Amino acid sequence: MREVNRSALILTAKPAFLDWVREVDASSSDLTLEDINEEPVIYLVPEFESDEEFAKWVEGHFDDIFQEQLAGWWTDQRLWPTDRSVRLFQNWFDCQSHSVVLDVVPGRLSRVE
């Protein structure tokens, strides 16, 4: 396996995001947080030396991630929150950094390059 020079951002929804989904989509009334987070979204991001560096990167890129998540659940942007601050993002989502990413596609299973 080959280690990729990247980290992973694992994104999970919090109850406030579920509340918004239920508000904009009446058919989601039975949806649970466990349903939403059954398969968390994982983004490949740059490598980080510290949690602080990771947090700073998230602050600089949260709006793109926020918009991606909103669009994945509801495409009518008129119903998206207009004040998408980093504070709101942090209230709606949890971002966890994971530093070990291995590439296991065929042909890359050997440690010898």
How are the elements arranged and paired?
Blueprint lengths: L1 E2 L3 E7 L1 H10 L8 H4 L4 E5 L5 H23 L12 H7 E6 L3 E2 L10
Antiparallel strand pairs: 1-5, 2-3, 2-4
Q: What can you tell me about this protein's structure?
A:
By secondary structure, this protein is α+β, with helices and mostly antiparallel strands. The protein is 39% helix and 19% strand. It has a 3-stranded antiparallel β-sheet with strand order 3-2-4. A two-stranded antiparallel ribbon has the order 1-5. The chain is globular and about 45 Å long. The mean pLDDT is 91.
Briefly, what is this?
The protein is α+β, with helices and mostly antiparallel strands. The protein has helices spanning 15-24, 33-36, 51-73, 86-92, and strands at residues 2-3, 7-13, 41-45, 93-98, 102-103.
Mean pLDDT: 91
Question: Major beta sheet, specifics?
Answer: 3 strands, antiparallel
How many helices? The count is 4
Give the low-confidence spans: none
Total strands: 5
Percent helix range = 25-40%
Strand order of the largest sheet: 3-2-4
Q: Give the SSE order as H and E letters.
A: EEHHEHHEE
Shape: globular
> Any idea what the radius of gyration is?
17 Å
- Distance N to C terminus: 10 Å
Task: Please report which band the strand proportion falls in: under 5%, 5-15%, 15-25%, 25-35%, 35-45% or over 45%.
Answer: 15-25%
The helix/strand class is alpha+beta
